[in-house]
Amino acid sequence: MAKRIVSLLLACLTMGAGLAQADPEADLAGLVKHYKDRLPDLKPQDYIFGALAYNKDSMEQYLSIMDFPPYLNDMDKAKALWNKPFKNGKTFGDCFPNKGKNVAGDYPMFDDASGKVVTFENAINSCLKANGETEYDYGDMKTMGLVTAYAKSLSDGSKVNVKVQGKGALEAYEKGKTFFYSRRGQLNFSCATCHVDNVGKSIRSDALSPTIGQTSHWPEFRSGTEPTTLQTRFRQCNIQVRSAPLPQNSEEYNNLEYFLSYMSNGLPMQTPVFRK
Fold first, then answer.
1. Do 232 and 119 meet the contact criterion of CB atoms below 8 Å apart?
2. CATH topology classification for 21-212+225-276
3. Which sign does the torsion angle of CA 20, 23, 27, 29 carry?
4. DSSP class of residue 116?
5. 227 and 141 Cβ atoms separated by less than 8 Å
6. Which of 101, 117, 149, 174 supports an S-S bond with 22, CB 3.0-4.6 Å?
7. What average pLDDT does the chain have?
8. Cβ distance 82 to 150 under 8 Å?
9. Active-site residue, from 12, 95, 127, 237
């Protein structure tokens, strides 16, 4: 009975959309407490490793791979795209403070003028548009995926620092949280079903990672040579629960990314990484 009461209290904390003003700090504190109860041996700095942190052998294999990651040639291509001059002579670095160094942790951010969440990929396309170039397809991993991977690597070690301030930002955050906790698809799963309710357990051979830390390391390189962006992973998850995936850069996915990124606030970024 006591365990059920705790679960209900957590649900009230995290699923109270529309009942009270959104409180991102309280949401994050609630998840921190939940994971401390479920995974008492996990240290805060371990969250960036996801499910790897549960298994010593897996972690050692990962660290060994990261000494000489298999995507180094791809990152050379990514760097070349980032530094390639536009027709006007400018480059991507000219669109960001400090040439793009240590800025990725501030994304996504809410833009009051447009009333929308702006992801880092949005900022890349805005840069292309402002300089008279053709925007990238959000699902094209050979352009958007590679450029995002390199651009975010310029922020390695900097902290995730997403801000949710003002009515519009709170509404977008709340929509993202609602999406995260809403069940969908033939399997009737929500994101939270795996990453909150069953965190630390396994589905088939895959351990389920905590929500905190999940956005700190995308894009990832998995099997093959192309990177996988965070919203590509959203689509994959929707398909896995037999729900129709949404387009990348949809309002729903952008809001979800906004919510999830806030849940990683304060953690160091490491991009890209290699995961199975």
1. no
2. Cytochrome Bc1 Complex; Chain D, domain 2 (1.10.760)
3. negative
4. E
5. yes
6. 174
7. 91
8. yes
9. 237
Nearest to 27 by CA among 258, 269, 270: 258
Tokens 């904390």 locate to 13
Q: Residues with Cβ < 8 Å from 225, sequence gap 6 or more?
A: 70, 71, 73, 74
**What are the E-state strand segments in the chain?**
109-111, 116-118, 202-203, 206-207, 220-221, 227-228, 273-274
Q: In whole angstroms, what is the distance from residue 127 CA to residue 142 CA?
A: 18
Active site residue 127: no
Reported residue count of the chain is 276
DSSP 225: S
Query: pLDDT tens-digit profile of 79-126?
Result: 999 999 999 999 999 999 999 999 999 999 999 999 999 999 999 999
Domain spans of the chain, in order of start: 21-212+225-276
pLDDT tier, 204 (very low <50, low <70, confident <90, very high otherwise): confident
